[in-house]
Design goal:
The protein is an alpha/beta fold and about 325 residues long. It has three domains: about 5-75, no CATH class; about 85-145, no CATH class; about 160-310, no CATH class. Helix content is about 45%, strand content about 10%. The protein is built from 13 helices and ten strands. The protein has helices spanning about 5-15, 20-25, 30-35, 55-60, 60-75, 85-100, 105-115, 120-125, 135-145, 185-190, 220-235, 275-285, 295-310, and strands at about 15-20, 40, 45-50, 160-165, 170-175, 190-195, 215, 240, 250, 285-290. A five-stranded mixed sheet has the order 4-6-5-7-8. A hairpin with a 3-residue loop joins strand 2 and strand 3 (about 45-50). The radius of gyration is 23 Å and the shape is globular.
């Protein structure tokens, strides 16, 4: 849902009605409340809350709307033209929380030092380099929270974002940014994290692993395993793929865009039996595993145990 839909549902709760507009006519959420739950009725040029609407709204929507409205208002982002998607608001709230906790300081410094492009910012936080295109209000909100005057117009920079630590024992290259926003555990265990931005692996030509073991963490989907990982392995042949421990999700139910093609030859990229079995099961069930759902330290422990057992044999 976007803010127009969220606000309309709240108006139905507060005032008992909400005026028609094109966005609401196309809303799947409102359609569901009308057709499946009979919580909203169609009136003359407006939607009318039925007797059961109040209980449904208080159960399923009120707390979220209150949190969103409080956040947007407190940060002067609540304007008549506001059309943020609900997921966008959650990302902005997460970034604001990181900023208040001081977690965002290091990343912000690297963003400024790299003169990071709008496309790379889009890829960092929204997992699509084109997501921010023509979303002016969202761009301005990000500038405000990150305290950055402008984002570069270049599509890519030769810059690796790093979460460094003392007494480094290993490096993990992450497909997504999420692990870098949670620095406490990796640093405690001497794990240095790198992020280059999905397919933008050209900058790895200049990377130095300093003789440390390096591992790859990614979404276990077609793009992560069969497009990005081979590109990474060309640049860093010794990199090892971490086996996930997160819960698989349905590709269709999550609306995920990276789908498994038919006739995929797993052996062409993966010879390890653990990799092969996990990927085969994901394909068979049409599922994927989101990188940030994994426990990073457990993935590293698993690969160390595996190497120890192989050495014993």
């Amino acid at each position: 849902m976007n803010w127009i839909e969220l606000r309309a549902l709240n108006n139905l709760y507060r005032y008992g009605s909400a005026k028609y507009n094109e966005t609401l006519k196309k809303s799947k959420e409102i359609g569901f409340l009308i057709d499946s739950l009979n919580a909203i009725e169609l009136g003359h040029r407006s939607y009318i809350a039925s007797d059961k609407y109040k209980l449904i709204y208080e159960r399923d929507y009120l707390n979220q709307f209150t949190a969103y409205e409080t956040f947007l208002s407190a940060n002067n982002l609540l304007k008549p033209q506001t059309q943020y998607e609900e997921a966008d608001i959650r990302i902005l709230m997460k970034l604001q929380g990181m900023k208040e906790d001081g977690v965002l300081d290091e990343l912000r410094s690297q963003i400024i030092a790299a003169d990071t492009s709008l496309r790379n910012i889009s890829l960092m936080f929204f997992k699509s380099e084109k997501y921010l295109d023509n979303r002016c209000s969202l761009i301005e909100a990000l500038k405000q929270i990150l305290e950055v005057d402008e984002f570069s117009n270049e599509k890519d920079q030769q810059y690796i974002y790093k979460l460094e630590c003392h007494n480094t024992v290993a490096i993990v290259l992450c497909e997504n940014l999420d692990f870098l926003t949670k620095p406490a555990k990796p640093r405690k265990h001497g794990i240095e994290l790198w992020y280059v931005g999905g397919k933008n692996v050209g900058k790895l030509d200049y990377s130095q692993t300093r003789g440390l073991p390096i591992y790859y963490s990614c979404d276990w989907d077609y793009d992560g395993l069969f497009i990005i990982f081979p590109l990474v392995k060309e640049k860093i042949p010794g990199i090892q793929l971490l086996i996930p421990n997160g819960s698989p999700k349905s590709i269709n139910e999550t609306g995920h865009g990276s789908k498994w093609p038919s006739g995929l030859n797993i052996n062409s990229v993966f010879e390890d039996n653990n990799h092969y079995c996990t990927i085969s099961e994901l394909i068979q069930k049409d599922q994927w595993i989101i990188e940030e759902s994994n426990d990073l330290l457990r993935m590293l422990e698993h690969i160390k145990e595996k190497q120890k057992n192989n050495n014993v044999m």
